[in-house]
Amino acid sequence: MKKIRFLSLILLLTLFFTLAAPAASALDAPEVEGSYCVLLETNTDTVLFEKGAYERAYPASLTKMMTVLLAIEAVEEQRTLPNGQVAALSNQVTANAGFDFDLIAEGSTENIMLGETMSLEDLLYCAMLSSANEACNIVGEYIGGSVGQFVEMMNQRAAELGCTGTHFANTHGLPNENHYTTAWDLSLIAREAVQHTFFRELCNTRSKGLNPTNMSSGRVLSNTNALLNSNEHYPGNYLYEGASGIKTGFTGAAGYCLAALATRDGVNNIQLLSIVLHAPAYDDNADGIIDRYCNFTDSARLFDWGFDNWSYREVIKSTDIITEVPVTMGDGTDTVSVRPSSSIVRLLPNDEDLSTYQKVPVIYAQEDGRELEAPISAGQVLGEISVVKDGRTVGSSSLVASTDVNLSRVLYMRTEISNTLHRPLVRWTFWLLVLLFLFYIFVVVRYRNRRRAYLARVNHARVAQEIADGDADVREWYNDGEGERPAPRGGTSARKKHPVRKSGKSARSAAASRPAAGKNPAKRPSARPGPSDPASPTANDDDKFRDYFEEFFGNKDGKKDDNTDK
Length: 566
What we know:
The chain has helices spanning about 1-20, 65-75, 120-130, 135-145, 145-160, 185-195, 195-205, 295-310, 365, 410-420, 425-470, 470-480, 495, 505-515, 540-555, and strands at about 35-40, 45-50, 90-95, 115-120, 205-210, 220, 245-250, 255-265, 270-280, 280, 290-295, 310-315, 325-330, 335-340, 345-350, 360-365, 370-375, 380-390, 390-400. It is of the alpha+beta class. The strands form six sheets. Strands 16-18-19-14-13-17 form a six-stranded mixed beta sheet. A five-stranded antiparallel beta sheet has the order 2-1-9-8-7, with helices on both faces. The relative contact order is 0.08.
């Protein structure tokens, strides 16, 4: 039992220390002996490795990259020079007095003499292949008008390229306290320089024979870069397959320096740029002869490490379905799948876990608070996706529809009608029309009720008048109860019910024999006026109301009522 408890404790402690231990880096850093190094992939500007890259260092002859770059840019731009000539590689340039500015006897040289004339092209070969210091001064004076002015141009161009830790004091890189840079700044200068075709031609030339001059029978130059050319300057085998330049350098203060470029077949066109500064050299055999130059070995080691451990990898493929997006008014579907318009490819360590990269999709319609609506065509851009690692966006691509989504006509019409009815102006107009219609119904009903009451009063008044005039038939009809109903328009019910009436002379005689209504009202038969007596207090108001609506609506019979006694 005690043994089991002891084993459990051991396992728990092992698990604890495993979790507490710091995680190992994805890649073991390459072992280099140079004090300041940078390894950069030029196609993507990805820094694969750096060591003291931003610390101040002496550049030695790597300075010549800037000198040659400015001369090539002047030629490409066909710039008019201070002497009035248009810059061209074929222009003849003479070594004038002062061309040996800031030179030392032990510095690298091609022994160009005062007054010697050669082409600008040959001077640039001297500067790059054999690292001739005097050639740099001659070029600087020719392009800038003076060496001092050209150095100012060098500093200005460095600032334009983003160099923040660089200051040039001469054209060649011999020791000077005010002449310094960083490995990172030199990578920016080298990256710009190799974009120019003639610069690439210069730094990849292994040897070059120059034309005779007015003071020389000709020269044969040999490239000092041992990665691409075996030479007497650096004995030993440092050749590196795929190397293509760029420039070597050495002073006692700067140590051994190298800017180099390399590609390797079958590695997805990866192009690596290395900067190594202040590297040592060793006499491994203790025979007084240097056997190992670490600027070359460090560069080769950096290239091997980069090619072996890094490659272009698809973080997201163009065929990946990222998400399903809701779609309104779709015919037979209510979603559409989206995918990246192109793969997101990044230079990454081979053992990098791609699942640690966060994929952040954004749909434009949803971002704007809208619904995605049909129709949608396959390939239509609907949003974008970003790939984020440790809070930094490493790539992005547009999101496109993977299929077509046709428009449903029924849903479209229904939506349009609904949207129209929900517009404030339409809603207010609708309710206004409803209120107007209700008001119209109210007015019509009221008018008809008042007209009916008016006609009833007129009928009762007519009956009462006829009774008062002594019409026995009407009285009899009224006493029989018929008078409780209103007589039809155009005559009384009594006349229709008792068609035998006095007419002609006899009728007039009978009317004459009747007593006048105004003379003896006591002898008149009493009439029972209806509920709407014309003499009632509201009669005038009702008549005015009727007259107004008769005029407004028009008479239904096409003529005015003729129910009053003539």
